[in-house]
């Protein structure tokens, strides 16, 4: 009878241990991004100046080897590191499909021009 109780106690302990292990792994996985993906961490908007909105966003990315955090179609994305090193920003397709991309003269960023003439300027810091 005592042997049966000991077996049940050991089995219950093993099940509890496995459940704790699974729960621990799930908690660790939730904080990690899948390889090649990004998420926006902070987004601040300043509309204090008339006809002008300044937006600053911070993204967290888990890029693969040879990639770095960048922008594709107005969203954070992993892009080829060569694009960032050469400062040829328009090669990463940072603007939406209906917008035109132009490099700033000093290559510190780019502009996206919408069909109606509205211009969005992005600078890299």
TrEMBL record:
The keyword Signal applies. GO terms for biological process: G protein-coupled receptor signaling pathway. The keyword Signal applies. Pfam families: TAFA (PF12020). One of its GO terms (molecular function) is receptor ligand activity. GO terms for cellular component: extracellular space. Keywords: Signal. PANTHER family: CHEMOKINE-LIKE PROTEIN TAFA-5, CHEMOKINE-LIKE PROTEIN TAFA-5-RELATED. Belongs to the TAFA family. This is Protein FAM19A5-like protein. It comes from Lates japonicus (Japanese lates).
């Amino acid at each position: 009878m005592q042997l049966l109780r000991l077996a049940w106690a050991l089995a219950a302990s093993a099940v509890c241990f496995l459940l704790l292990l699974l729960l621990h792994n799930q908690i660790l996985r939730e904080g990690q991004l899948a390889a090649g993906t990004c998420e926006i961490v902070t987004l601040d908007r300043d509309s204090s100046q008339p006809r002008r909105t300044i937006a600053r966003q911070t993204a967290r990315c888990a890029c693969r080897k040879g990639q770095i955090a960048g922008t594709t179609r107005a969203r954070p994305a992993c892009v080829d590191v060569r694009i960032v090193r050469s400062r040829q920003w328009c090669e990463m397709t940072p603007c939406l499909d209906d917008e035109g991309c132009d490099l700033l003269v000093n290559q510190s960023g780019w502009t996206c021009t919408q069909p109606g003439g509205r211009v969005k300027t992005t600078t890299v810091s």
